[in-house]
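Sequence only, no structure available. Ideas?
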Amino acid sequence: MLNLFQQVYDPVSGSILASALVASLPLIVIALMLTVLRRPPWQAAIAAAGTAAALAWGVWGMPAGLTLAAFTQGMAFGLWPISWVVFSAVFFYNLSVAGGDFDVIRRSLARLTTDRRLLALLVAFGFGALVEGIAGFGAPVAITASMLAGLGFEPISAAVLALVANTAPVAFGSLGIPVTTLGGLLAPILGRDVESTTRALSAMVGRQLPFFSVIIPAYLVVLLSGWRGLAGVFPAVLVAGVSFAVTQFVVSNTLGPELTDIMAALCSIGALALLLRVWRPGDSRGAAVPLPPDPGASPVPPDSPGRVARAFTTYGILVVVVLIGQIGNFGGIRQMPPPVNVTALLRCGQAGNVQCPEPWAGLPAAVAPQGFRFPVWDFQWPGTYAWSEGRPAPLIRRAPPVTASVTAYPLTYRLDFLASAGTLVFLAAVIAFAVMRVRGVPGSAFASALRATAAQLRLPVVTIAFILSIATVMNYSGMTSSMALALASTGRLFPFFSAVLGMLGVFLTGSDTSSNTLFGPLQATTARVSGLDPILMGATNSSGGVMGKMISPQNLSVGAAGVGAVGREGEIFRRVVGHSLLLTALMGLLAMLQAYVFTWMVPG
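Reply:
I predicted one. C-alpha cells follow.
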C-alpha cells in the first residue's frame, strides 16, 4: 500500500480565500524582512523557506518526509544549474575586467560622441544590456550609472537613466537565467519536458519585450532632454531600439534565452556606431559638457582599432561557444523525446530483479542514434517515489479543480554537466583567457577572478538555493494552487494583474529570477484554472517583473552607490516610480490583448 499524499487546496476552515492568505505567509515574511526589518536577502530567504516548510507540514498535511524531499530538491535545483550559470556568467565578466577588455569597450563607447542623448543610448541602453546579458544581478545599473556620472551627467539623473534602461534586457539577463529557472519550475506543472517549456517561455517573452525595447530608448531621451530633444536624435533612437528589438525577437524565438541579451546588445551598439559614421544630430541640445581635467590623473591614450576589435572578440567567443553548444543539443531535442530513465527502471522491475536500484538512482539517459546530444542524467528525487507493481510510482498527487482528475505529480531532478549553459560559459571563459594570455595578461588573473567571483556570490548563492526551496515546497504541497484558485476569481482581468504580480515580485526581491521562482508557478496554475494559456501567464510574470527592477530597494541602493549618492535613494525612487507603474500597466494591457485578441502571438 503506497503512502500517497493528495493535495488539499482549502485546509484552512474549508475556505479557498483563507487558505490563500495563509499560503502567502512565506511571501509576506520575505517582504517584511526586506522592507521593514531591512535584513539581507539570504536571511529573508532562509526565514521564508522555514515558514513554507512548516505550513506545508502543519497546515497542508504534507508528510514530513515529502516536505523534506521537496525542500532539498528545490535547493539542489537552485545550486545546479541555476547558481552554476550565475557563477560562470559573473566569472566571465570579472575575467573580462581583469583582462582589460571591459574598460576598452567602455572607453570606445565614450569616444563615439559627446552628445548626452547618444551617450545615454550607447551606455545606459546598449552597454547596460550587454552587462545584463553576461552578469546581471545589479552590475548593469552600478556600472552604467557610474559611467554616465563620469561622463558629466548629473548624478541622480545618471542613476535614473541607468535604472529605466535596465528594463528591456532583464528577463534574459545572466545568460537567460530568469527564463531558464521558470522553465524548470513550470515543466512538471504542465506535464512537459524542461527544454520545450523553456523555449516556449523564451519565445513568449520575446513576443512581449521587443515592444518595450523600441520604446525605452525614446523614453530615455525624453527623460533627459524632453520631446524636442528626442526629435533631434530620432534616427539614432529608432536604430538603437529597432535593432535591439528585432534581434531580441529573433534570438529568443529561435535560439532560446541564453544569448538573447548579448546578441541584441551587440547588434544595437554596432548599428548605432555605424549610424554615427554617416550621421550626426542636427542640433546641439543635450551635448555633453567636457569635464575639467584632473591634474593628478594620467591621460589615457585612445585605444587602437585593433585593440577595440580584440576586446569585442572576447564577447564574441562567448557567443560562439554557447551557440555551438546549443546547436549540439538542438539535434538531439528535435530528433528524440526528452531523455528519461523511467524506461530502464520499468524493464528492471518487469524482469523481477530484486536488485533493482531505488527509483531515485541516477541512470544515464538513453541517446537516440539519429541525433547527437550531450549526456544527461535524470533522477527521481529520493523519498518521493515508491515501487508499485514493479514500477516507480510518484507519492504526490494533484487533484481537481487544479487538474481534471487526480494525477501524479512527479518530482525529478536532472544533471546535465556538459549541456548546462553554465558549463559552456565557463568553457568560453577558459578559451577567452587563453587568448588574453597571448596578449600578455598574467596567468594569475584567472585565479584572481575566480576567487573574486566566489567571494562575490557566496551569499547570493545561499539566497537562490533557499528561494528555490520555497517555490518547490509551495508547489508540491498545494500552497501555490490554493493561491491560484483565489486569484482565478479576478476572471478576465487576470492577465493584467499577472503583470502587476510580476512587478511586485521584482520590487520585493530585486530579481526577475526570484520573482519567477515565487510567482511563476502560481501564474501558470491560475492560468490553467482560469482557462488561459500557462505559457502566456508565466511569461507575463517575467516580462512584467522587469518593470519593478527600477524601484526595487536593492537596485535603488546599487544605483545610488554607483553615482556617489548614498542616502538619496528616496529621491531616486520618487523619480522612477511613475515610470515603473506606467510601463507595468502597458505590459498588463499587452498581456490582455495577447490573451483575448491576438491569441496567435502565443506559441502553439
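The longest strand covers residues 377-380.
Hope that gets you unstuck.
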